[in-house]
């Protein structure tokens, strides 16, 4: 619930108490946020394993250097009021380890997921969680599409026509396919189209490992 009304974003469980998401999803919150865990069909509240947890704004940490104009440092942390019980439906994703801090992950296949809209003409979110797999591309290739917006703290995937992240997917995960490790948090989209096969940018998780550990105590040593 934000100053702009109700919005939807994704996030990733990194421990039994912490969720990582995008800063622009949390910066304008009024009272707090409903966190859905264990959900496949977000509209089916009787779904096995699905739980909705309200988190007050005071338990959400937006990166201190988040820039809402440039969308730099677009990362935030949500502290759950009680620990999650991990089940077949609810599991954390591991963070990169410190040895991977300078890894680009270029050419590796990664998976992005979310309930965002599925075409440029849509106004409604998807009911069922959707995902794509795509290669990680270099920041220079990404910058050729999104000039001036890609920083060293971003990571991008190359997408094909009609297969990309879109509005409503922000905050969601980018995970390595071969070794499920969280390498990105979905940030902005190419404003004029999600369907043209342009790159999809994410916040690069390895750039924030020290910050995450300082705020949460969570790391992958």
TrEMBL record:
Protein name: Brachyurin
Family annotation (InterPro entries): Peptidase_S1_PA, Peptidase_S1_PA_chymotrypsin, Peptidase_S1A, Ser/Thr_Proteases_Immune/Dev, Trypsin_dom, TRYPSIN_HIS
Keyword Nucleus: no
GO molecular function (one): serine-type endopeptidase activity
Source organism (scientific name): Bactrocera dorsalis (Oriental fruit fly)
PROSITE patterns, per the entry: TRYPSIN_DOM, TRYPSIN_HIS
UniProt-listed GO biological process terms: proteolysis
UniProtKB keywords: Disulfide bond, Hydrolase, Protease, Serine protease
Family note: Belongs to the peptidase S1 family. CLIP subfamily.
Gene name of the record: COGS
Source species, domain of life: Eukaryota
Peptidase S1 domain sequence ranges: 1-217
Classification via PANTHER family: TRYPTASE-RELATED
SMART domains, A to Z: Tryp_SPc
